[in-house]
Amino acid sequence: MTAADVRLVDNGDGWRLALKRTPAHGRALAAVLLVPGYGMNSFIFGFHPSGLSLEAYLASRGLDVYSVDLRAQGRSENAGGGKRFGLGDLAVTDLGAAIEGVRAWSGQGTVDLVGCSLGAALSFAHVACVPGAPVRSLVSLGGLVTWVDPHLLVRVAFASPWFVGMVPMGGTRKMAGRALPLLARVAPRLLSLYVHAQSTDLSHAPTMVNTVEDPSPHMNREIAEWVGRRELVVRDVNVSRALRTMENPVLVVVANQDGIVPPATGRAIYDEVGSLRKELVCVGDAERPIAHADLFVARGAQERVFAPIAEFLTRPSGGA
Fold this sequence. Notes:
alpha/beta; nine-stranded mixed beta sheet; 13 helices; two-stranded antiparallel ribbon
């Protein structure tokens, strides 16, 4: 990758966001922005243990692909911005700057958003909070807006907004690098909430953890309030209820054994959104279960996960 593949975009709030481009093979059919989720950066979009990454696969299908590192993620740079930020800052300010960066770089008038995990919540929140946002269609990849029966461990972890908002988070990547191989050996069932050893080659865990970032305590508090309330509210806009009036085409991809975003929670976007064109893809079966991270790095992710996304975004109607 050359320096020309990455640009820094000023978000107007003291941060320069890293925007990476993977150009389409041939004429670009559309511009697609991949949005990372909770405690992660965009690294995993460009990595796969044994085949094409999500970025490379979508580009091979004629899509001009962009991945963003939001503030405090990956290669983004602090240019005097504060370290205290929340969901609204990411969904409205950062995502808005990234969308404009993609439009300027690609020459496209609109952008498709592929929101991954929490990135889906940010994507739908952007559309709900920014009237007339130049977003053509949205893909939720293991994402959520409204919590439906969250896993017990999620409820416990975010039981107290005050507590999770006070606990500083540091060294998360190093801890993940040690924990993933250990859990794969001694507690694969616990690890399967996030990734299935029978579906993903975990010998690459030391590389995969490069996508891990330290979560923001302030945002943790907001997430805890969201889990308790169930509905997503960003900058006084109830995004869960706003889904009913959205008209953008929507694709929802749900993992059958996702312990972070349970299938019922992931599917809720499909059930609630008012779009006339909406599609649901459920990935995984008893033989090859798919958990949260498997959506990006499992064996066969190209055919089972990436292909339906490419097909949705490359139809002659342009996703509409």
